[in-house]
Structures are given as structure tokens and as C-alpha cells.
Amino acid sequence: MNEAVTTSNAPGAIGPFSQAIKVGNLLFVSGQLPIDPATGEFVSDDPVEQARQCLKNIAAIAEAAGSGIERTVKTTVLLTDLSRFADINNVYATFFQKPFPARACYEVSALPKGAQVEIEAVIALA
């Protein structure tokens, strides 16, 4: 059975989807934009700061589900400029330790609301 997970510590869904869904012992976190939940606005125009906020949002959702970002098993990173990959990797590495989650990273032509970064995750539940 699917169970929606929501928290006010991450931005609400901007469409017909949930912040995250629990299924069995996994949490599927929808793509997170770099929106500060307190203001409803992007934290910055800088893709590195945007990536940091995306990961903070994922951490808040994981916590709301009774887990933690350190239990992430897979992420997908979407970037509008792959030339910033190394910089974003540096921020990404501050949220995860070995063994690092599996990951895919793609350059896309556009993201919702003009974001430069979006990150989704699959997280193991405790």
C-alpha cells in the first residue's frame, strides 16, 4: 500500500504528485526544486546553492518519514548546465558518505519554475 509523506519543512508539490511515497521499506522522494519552504522562493540563482537546498529538502522529507538522508540508496540529479557538474558534486559529497548512493545525472533543457537543479531520491526506511 502506498502512503504519502508530507512535511512543511520542504516545499509542497507544485502539481498532482506527492512530496514522497512510502512503499514497503522504501521512500520515493519526488524531484525537489531549490525552494526554501519558509519563503516559497528559490534560495539563489547559483546552481551550487540550488543543489544544497534540493538536498536539504530531501533530508527534511526523509526525516518526516522516520528515516534520514544518510539512508539514501539512489538519486537522480537534473541540471540545466552540466558544466557545473564538479561544483555540484562538491556540495553533494557533503550530504553523503561512503558507500555513496547510486546516482544518475542528466543535463536537461529546462526545469520547472526556471530552476537550474532538481534532485529526486530513493531512501531506505529504518
TrEMBL record:
GO cellular component, one term: cytosol
UniProt-listed Gene3D superfamilies: RutC-like
Pfam family, one: Ribonuc_L-PSP
InterPro entries: RidA, RidA_CS, RutC-like_sf, YjgF/YER057c/UK114
A GO term, aspect molecular function: deaminase activity
Superkingdom in the source lineage: Bacteria
Annotated PANTHER family: 2-IMINOBUTANOATE/2-IMINOPROPANOATE DEAMINASE RIDA, 2-IMINOBUTANOATE_2-IMINOPROPANOATE DEAMINASE
NCBIfam families (alphabetical): Rid family detoxifying hydrolase (TIGR00004)
Assigned protein family: Belongs to the RutC family.
Protein name: Reactive intermediate/imine deaminase
